[in-house]
Design goal:
Rossmann fold, 3 domains, nine-stranded mixed sheet
């Protein structure tokens, strides 16, 4: 572990987690080799007409690791992975793990602003993206990144690179017959395995360091609670770079159980239902905005969902009345999921009654997950009362990557992570998510840092002050609304969206409404009073 870049677990805690078996001392490269030996001929991955067995995946990852090593990638190098859902994402991820290189997970909707921050903060030496995805050409973005960050030596594109000098085609690397890796420097289980992206409330997103030991624990315990096995077939609907899709139990949990991952290249219910019927999918994971669309599509088309046993819903709070419709209408058992890329995962259990499943967001997956619910004074509140969730445990980080000042505020002196989530804990240990302390907008699971977007809005010509607030929305949970103080005619939402797009800000962060105000209401200490702004929308 590199203590200069990120704090690891105290020695005594690490020893306890190993003794308890939560940490097993295996890297993901080693795990894939073991899975390939156990499940060699079983189907690991399905993406359209592409079907990879465990042995196929193992060989492809090893061949790609050799090709990447031949192009200079080494243990500890950070690689921004900006791929959408496809088999190549999984193969690349494991190839990097074999090298001990560190994938930095970028979301498919991220653009220059977000990806540039990831490159800069992580010190990435390589970028991997598609040629085009969702009508966006990633190659000019890659060229801009390479020009802006001299340390970004290697650009790999999954698709056409004609006319782009110095870009490497991922398909060529996958097909390369590279020489064996000379002087191997294998990673250790305590090494950094990947960097996830936090929603952030400090003006820029934070990078979340996850090790092989802790992230494997995350996926394995989730898979055990979901009762996964070799007959499990998981549909990856949400983006694979999400922690939810990757390891709760997600891709990694299904593979460790010997099951099959089916890739959905788009999240539409029609695509999902077609894949469920064709591949006999048994488990899928959604965010709340997709649930009403599934219910509507099911009512209109009566698809064959007979194989679907478990539907996970997480990434944002699911409305109780919608939760109660899932099993009667879709025929699958609901599992609520509440967690964070920083660590703690909560799941409802098979033995939980319908009321618990439909009205709570689950309980921690590990006996060594420590949970506190505290009031404003920092003291623990009784069960049933609302407070901020604090947590630590074998797969919850003790600090962000290269973020010393943020870590001093975001973690207690004894290592508890301050989640910023307001919850009620029931006597059973189940948590009910009530709200959020942090200035963050949760648009259907996509976390929007208001401070970051406000910085871009303030750069719009004629804008004197800007505030972004989240307002309740039936479909997405929350939507962003911008309040602007302007010198002259205020811009329309479409003009603001075009401006943010030009600045490389992801589309989900654009305000749905823009409201001009003469001045910002202020609190007693001179800060913008966002509660007062929100109240004007409901008064």
């Amino acid at each position: 572990m590199d203590g200069a870049d990120w704090p690891g677990w105290p020695v005594e805690d690490a020893r306890r987690y190993r003794a308890a078996g939560w940490w097993r001392g295996e890297t993901f490269g080693e795990l894939l080799s073991g899975w390939a030996a156990r499940f060699a001929g079983r189907t690991a991955l399905v993406d359209g007409d592409t079907r990879l067995t465990y042995a196929d995946l193992d060989r492809a990852a090893h061949r790609l690791a050799r090709a990447l090593h031949a192009r200079g990638l080494r243990r500890g190098d950070r690689v921004v992975v900006h791929l959408p859902n496809r088999a190549e994402f999984v193969t690349l991820w494991f190839a990097l793990q074999r090298l001990g290189a560190v994938p930095v997970h970028a979301m498919p909707g991220h653009r220059r602003s977000e990806v540039g921050h990831l490159v800069e903060r992580s010190g990435a030496v390589a970028y991997v993206g598609p040629d085009r995805h969702a009508r966006f050409d990633h190659r000019p973005l890659a060229a801009e990144l390479r020009a802006a960050y001299p340390g970004l030596d290697l650009v790999i594109i999954d698709g056409d690179v004609t006319g782009w000098d110095g870009f490497h085609r991922l398909a060529d690397l996958l097909a390369a017959d590279a020489a064996p890796i000379a002087e191997p420097d294998p990673p250790a289980a305590g090494d950094l395995a990947l960097l996830l992206l936090s929603g952030g409330t400090t003006g820029t997103p934070k990078l979340i360091p996850r090790t092989h030991d802790d992230y494997a624990c995350n996926a394995r315990l989730s898979a055990e609670i979901c009762e996964l096995g070799p007959d499990s077939v998981y549909l990856a609907v949400l983006p694979m770079p999400f922690n939810f899709t990757m390891a709760c139990p997600g891709v990694l949990g299904v593979l460790q159980a010997g099951g099959t991952v089916v890739v959905a290249r788009d999240p539409s219910p029609a695509t999902a239902f077609r894949l469920i019927a064709r591949e006999r999918v048994t488990i899928a994971a959604l965010n709340p905005p997709l649930v009403p669309l599934w219910l509507q599509e099911n009512a209109e088309t009566a698809p064959d969902l007979s194989s679907l046993r478990l539907l996970q819903v997480g990434a944002a709070r699911l409305a109780d009345d919608v939760a109660r419709r899932i099993e009667p209408e879709l025929g699958a058992r609901l599992q609520q999921v509440f967690g964070m890329a920083e660590g703690l995962i909560n799941l409802t259990r098979p033995e939980d009654g319908p009321d618990t499943v439909c009205t709570t967001q689950g309980r921690p997956i590990c006996p060594d997950d420590e949970v506190r619910v505290v009031g404003e004074s920092g003291a623990d509140v009784p069960d049933g009362e609302v407070g901020e969730l604090l947590t630590r445990g074998p797969y919850t980080i003790r600090g962000y990557y290269r973020a010393g000042a943020v870590n001093r505020e975001g973690f207690t002196a004894d290592g508890f992570y301050r989640t910023g989530d307001q919850v009620r804990r029931l006597p059973s240990g189940h948590l009910v998510v009530v709200g959020r302390i942090k200035d963050q907008i949760n648009r259907g699971g996509e976390k929007i840092d208001a401070t970051e977007v406000e910085g871009h809005l303030a750069a719009y010509p004629g804008v004197l002050a800007a505030a972004l607030v989240g307002v309740p929305d039936a479909d997405f949970g929350e939507k962003p609304v911008a309040f602007l103080v302007c010198d002259g005619t205020p811009p329309a939402a479409r003009a603001v969206g075009a401006f943010l797009r030009e600045r490389g800000v992801a589309g989900y962060k654009h305000p749905d409404r823009v409201i001009a105000v003469e001045s910002m209401p202020l609190t007693a200490v001179g800060k913008i009073d966002k509660k007062a702004l929100t109240a004007t929308l409901t008064s």
